[in-house]
Amino acid sequence: MSDEETSRFVRIRAELILEVHDEGRVTGAALRRLAGDPELPPEERSLAEGAVTEDTAEALAYLVDPFDLVSEVPGIELQQASWSSERIDYDPDSPEWDLDEDDGDGHDQEEDGIG
């Protein structure tokens, strides 16, 4: 492809599995971040504080920000980001959690008779 035909946009997909050893520290860090956000209106701050206090996964969603991952990369501008967090049952020995698995197109290549 020539430079004219190549898109300037790149999608990076990442999946992280975190083991929480101290929920109180995670919640406290999220509450400190919320308290230090001068642009957050008081009513939204109150709702967010309740959410991060009730659910450690929600607290992590406030602490892990995709912008932080790329803000120092020269020559790029973040166009869009979304992320979520949830509690999961995790077994690192299960084939279900194979991070090398290619799941980009939403279905298994064997379904298409490939592979």
Radius of gyration computed on alpha carbons: 19 Å
- Count of alpha and pi helical runs: 4
Uncertain parts: 105-115
Largest sheet geometry: none
Overall form:
flat
Distance between the termini: 27 Å
Q: Which strand-content bin applies to the residues? A: under 5%
Per DSSP E runs of 2 or more residues, the count of β-strands stands at: 0
| SS content category | mainly alpha
Instruction: Average the pLDDT over all residues and give the rounded result.
Output: 84
Order of SSEs? HHHH
Which features characterize this protein?
115 residues, mainly alpha, 4 helices, 0% strand, flat, disordered C terminus
Could you outline the blueprint of secondary structure elements for this entry?
Blueprint: H1 23-35, H2 42-54, H3 56-63, H4 66-70
Kindly describe this structure.
The chain has 115 residues and is mainly alpha-helical. The chain has a domain at 23-100. The chain has 4 helices and no strands. The longest helix has 13 residues, at 23-35. The relative contact order is 0.12.
What's the gist of this structure?
The relative contact order is 0.12. The chain has four helices and no strands. It has helices spanning 23-35, 42-54, 56-63, 66-70.
